[in-house]
Amino acid sequence: xxxxxxxxxxxxxxxxxxxxxxxxxxxxxxxxxxxxxxxxxxxxxxxxxxxxxxxxxxxxxxxxxxxxxxxxxxxxxxxxxxxxxxxxxxxxxxxxxxxxxxxxxxxxxxxxxxxxxxxxxxxxxxxxxxxxxxxxxxxxxxxxxxxxxxxxxxxxxxxxxxxxxxxxxxxxxxxxxxxxxxxxxxxxxxxxxxxxxxxxxxxxxxx
Length: 207
Prior knowledge:
Elements: H1 4-21, E1 26-30, E2 35-38, H2 40-50, H3 67-80, E3 86-94, E4 97-109, E5 115-124, H4 126-152, H5 154-166, H6 175-204
Helix pairs in contact: 4-6, 5-6
């Protein structure tokens, strides 16, 4: 029959297995910024900043040995230790490309409502950021298309409508009719170029 110690050991093993099966970085630090617990994903994630993994017992700021990394996160931990819960977005360079990570900081309090540590998690939001950027670029193209349709094309169209009213239908051979037709032809050519431009812009949307 298993005793309480065996059950506690089993639960601890299951807990370790669960936390390490989560693909997103998870870690917990005390109020001295020493790591109380973390998963494998955190070790891999932090290694991108400092060149080596960190784990239980390590100082989460790598004892300031990497100034860029320490400057990036020290303020966040200090703010969380005042009782604030918040999210920040940090960037890192992986294989020559910029990746963005959303990092959550949540103050951990004891029974006396004193802040004793910070619970943290991170999530890669690179694809989400790229998707948002793509949408913003598409919206910019759509705004330009709308401007062309409502202003640049509308102008030549109004000119054509005005020239058409001046056409002498009673005397088609009127020499001024030829000038009117030439003006209409030019406006149509300009509109055709604008329409081709709009088509090219629409094709650039990739939709």
